[in-house]
User: Fold this.
Amino acid sequence: MYDIDEIALRRLDLTVLLVFLGLMQHRKAVEVAGRMGLTQSAISHSIKRLRDIFDDPLFLRRPAGMEPTAVAIALEPKIRRAVEILSEALTTETDFDPAAETRVIRIGAYDNEMATLVPGLLHRARAQAPGLRFVIRSLGREAALSALDAGELDLALGFIWDLPQRFQAEPIHEEGYAVVFRADHPLATRDWTLEAFLQADHLVVSPAGDLTGVVDRELENLGLTRRVVAAVPLFFPALAAVAASDMVATLPGRLVAAHAARFGLTTRQPPLAIRPFEVAAIRHQRNAKSAMHDWLTAMLRPV
Assistant:
């Protein structure tokens, strides 16, 4: 517990706290200065004030950047929460007029959500808000949450388990699975059974490069295994690879329904039960009452 007297508290302004959080995230003073639009001198002055107030070096200069001390690491969640509370107080957005807006909306998504949710979002949103511009970034789960923390995204789309409490998830739809293989695959003329499924060579989508996935966990529960021969990081390369080989892939059902035919693929229902997952629009808790975020989430749902 840190005892900060009233005089010390008056020396803490929001800029100093944002500099602290910026250094914790980026570890380079020059990068924090650029992102915040401050001079190097202003950053140095903020660091000095922080060191004086907390009676600790907080950040040690290293060849790779600024290394936080144990005190800085302990302070980070408390300072982050303080900044979030102030941000919530300043961003009680209640009115939002889509037709009059000209801001840039930034969304993080994986290619499944880009292919299944973003096209409809852009169509519906552009009809109501022609002045808005959209930037869609390809981000995995951890990177998307970090970008939401930093205010670099308005929304993240996808399925994230164990979502920290500082985020809010609004369900968009429940997603199941479908199996795809090329139209002249030997499986196309066989009875579609679990045995036939297990005898095939399988491709998985794994950003981390794992050769297992949700199907393997379900098979393990049945005491069964399949033969996974390849992993790719994205869903569209998976569709292309399956179209050009004897591999099969088990992919999100909406993606398959929308795009499998473009690759000349045959589809089947999985011959085993696979737990569905919930695709959600995720915002930072500081935007919980934002009318713009409510509107944006509504635009993700078909009418």
Remarks:
- The radius of gyration is 24 Å.
- The chain has a mean pLDDT of 92.
- The chain is about 40% helix and 20% strand.
- The chain has three domains: 6-90, 98-175+278-300, 177-275.
